[in-house]
Amino acid sequence: MDYLITELEKTNKHIYYLLDERIKNNVQTIKPTNVVKFATSGIRERSRFYQIHQSDFSTVICLGVVPPTIRLNVKVFIYFQQSLYLERPTGVPFLFSVKLFLKIAVIKFLKKNADFWLVQSDLMKEKLGEKFGIAAEKILKLPFYPRLTEEITQERKKGQYIYVSNGVSHKNHVRLIEAFSNFYKKHKRGKLVLTISEKFLALRQLIAQKQKAGIPIENVGFLSHSALKKYYLQSEYLIFPSLAESFGLGLVEAIENGCKVIGADLPYTYAVCKQSLTFNPIDVHSIEESFRVSFFENLEPSEVKISDKIDEVISLLN
Prior knowledge:
The chain has 318 residues and is an alpha/beta fold. It has 2 domains: 2-146 and 309-314, Glycogen Phosphorylase B (Rossmann fold); 157-304, Glycogen Phosphorylase B (Rossmann fold, 3-Layer(aba) Sandwich), CATH 3.40.50.2000. It is 35% helix and 18% strand. It is built from 11 helices and 14 strands. The protein has helices at 2-8, 43-53, 94-110, 122-132, 173-187, 201-212, 228-234, 249-256, 267-272, 284-296, 310-314; strands at residues 16-20, 35-39, 59-62, 75-79, 116-119, 139-141, 157-163, 191-194, 217-219, 235-240, 260-264, 273-274, 277-279, 303-304. A 6-stranded parallel sheet has the order 9-8-7-10-11-13, sandwiched between helices. It has a 4-stranded parallel sheet with strand order 3-4-5-6, with helices on one face. Strands 1-2 form a two-stranded parallel ribbon. The protein is globular and about 65 Å long.
């Protein structure tokens, strides 16, 4: 979203931004010619907004996967970036599954209010069409993502692995931490860098336990996008055990900054890159073995399969 706003603000288009009030203090400067409104998260206030402003816009792009609650007399694009609504991964809590079920029901009910859907990969296009019965010509593959362009110099460290992700359950940190701990106990090699914020107390406690036991896991916490570049440049590998992704931005960023990718043997990985090594993300031993192979063998570099289409996204606004 930040990247899209940055690029929109470079144009002469007149934009009305409806944003979640929880990010009110973290939004970049908006030009005086544009409008920004902050609203509480929830369908009721969004519905009221559309009722009031239904004749005020020429095009609408929704980044929150849920279409407008009413049919607008303009083109409506839905940016669908959440694979959890298309295929539930294994190992997610029951309550979380219930919430997914309800959200899916809402999307199905409101899909008639959307004209086109934007996705980041061919895999997402295929699954979105199957799940919600949307015609292929109504789903546009237009990936967009910010580039880490700041020029800095870092020494790449042999055997340093990084996983850039928050701590929600389907990101699979617990298995990753156990696998690295097992690998390190056997070989006394490597270092794992994680980005877990204070919000995920249980994971941070697990990391602290491993650190106390002498396992070299560094948790750098939540980092700004630009601050990540240093850690990518330091690391030899990105290891990516997530059980579900719509895109996997970290895969692309890591490769563009010289890391080799060790990825989950899941379709989303193959959709965006050619990885150097894969593993079974629900098998701790398989993850552990990927640490061993990557440390002691010379793997081929990884390659990105997609490119940034931000200009095409912006051209949808007329």
